[in-house]
Structures are given as structure tokens and as C-alpha cells.
């Protein structure tokens, strides 16, 4: 398996575990000193913190995975995952089509950095942007 294929597989497996959600399994794909930053500059310590954050923001949320793009660097591979989020807001309103982009750095078989961007904050501020509102 190429370095690129291995990095994409690690990220894909991490995302699948995150959506279950199984933060313990998700953590196995991350380095112990992983740096996780969510939209708005929110720093997360680990996958358990991601799960706790998502429980506060959504009744439930999943990703419709789109494409994976990558670039190889001297000592790591950067993997981008993009697609859309779908789920339910805490008040029970469904949503879908919420764009996301996640950027991962994979080094020595582990995710060492994860950056997350999505439309959720904008949709919370302006519910008319939600395609299912």
C-alpha cells in the first residue's frame, strides 16, 4: 500500500469511527499529541471532546463523505476530506447539504493534526440557509 493510500485509509477509518460515534476506536487512528482545531478556532483534546461538542450542537450528525484529496510532504501526508453533513438540530429540525472540509496531517501511520470547517455556525445564525428548514 502506498503512503498516500495508507493515509487516506487512516482518515477514512477515523471518520467512520467518529460517525458511529466510537471515540475510543477513533482515538486509535490519532497520535497521543494530536492537535485538533474546529471551526471558530475551538481546540479539542481528543475524539471524546469532538463527540461531546457534537452532542451539544446537534441531536445527531453524520457525514456524507465526498472526495479525498492528498498531497505528500517530506515527513507527512496531508489528506482533505470534503462532503456534506446531515442530521438533526437539537430542536428536531432535520438538515442536509451542510458543507464540510476536514484537513488531516498523517505521519508515521497516525493523524497528528485535524482541522475542521463546516457551514453549521452560519446555518445556526441564519436558519433560512438550511435546505430542509
Task: Describe this protein with a few key phrases.
6 strands, Nuclear Transport Factor 2, Chain: A, 133 residues, 4 helices, alpha+beta, six-stranded mixed beta sheet
Number of separate domains: 1
Q: Calculate Rg over CA atoms.
A: 15 Å
Gross morphology is globular
Which structural class best describes the helix and strand composition?
alpha+beta
CATH class: Alpha Beta
Helix content: 25-40%
Poorly predicted regions are none
User: Helix tally?
Assistant: 4
Q: What name does CATH use for the topology?
A: Nuclear Transport Factor 2, Chain: A
Strand content: over 45%
Write the element-wise H/E pattern from the N-terminal end onward: HHEEHEEEEH
Number of strands: 6
Q: Order of strands side by side in the largest beta sheet? A: 2-1-6-5-4-3
Largest sheet: 6 strands, mixed
The end-to-end distance, rounded to whole angstroms, is 44 Å
What is the overall pLDDT average? 93
The CATH level-2 architecture is identified as Roll
Amino acid at each position: 500500500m502506498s503512503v498516500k493510500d495508507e493515509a487516506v485509509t487512516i482518515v477514512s477509518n477515523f471518520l467512520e469511527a467518529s460517525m458511529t460515534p466510537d471515540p475510543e476506536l477513533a482515538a486509535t487512528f490519532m497520535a497521543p499529541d494530536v492537535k485538533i482545531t474546529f471551526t471558530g478556532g475551538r481546540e479539542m483534546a481528543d475524539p471524546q471532546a469532538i463527540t461531546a461538542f457534537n452532542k451539544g450542537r446537534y441531536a445527531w450528525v453524520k457525514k456524507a463523505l465526498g472526495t479525498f484529496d492528498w498531497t505528500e510532504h517530506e515527513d507527512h501526508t496531508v489528506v482533505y476530506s470534503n462532503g456534506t453533513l446531515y442530521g438533526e438540530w437539537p430542536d428536531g429540525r432535520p438538515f442536509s447539504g451542510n458543507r464540510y472540509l476536514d484537513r488531516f496531517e498523517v505521519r508515521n501511520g497516525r493523524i497528528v493534526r485535524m482541522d475542521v470547517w463546516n457551514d453549521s455556525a452560519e446555518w445556526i445564525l441564519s436558519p433560512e440557509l438550511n435546505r430542509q428548514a
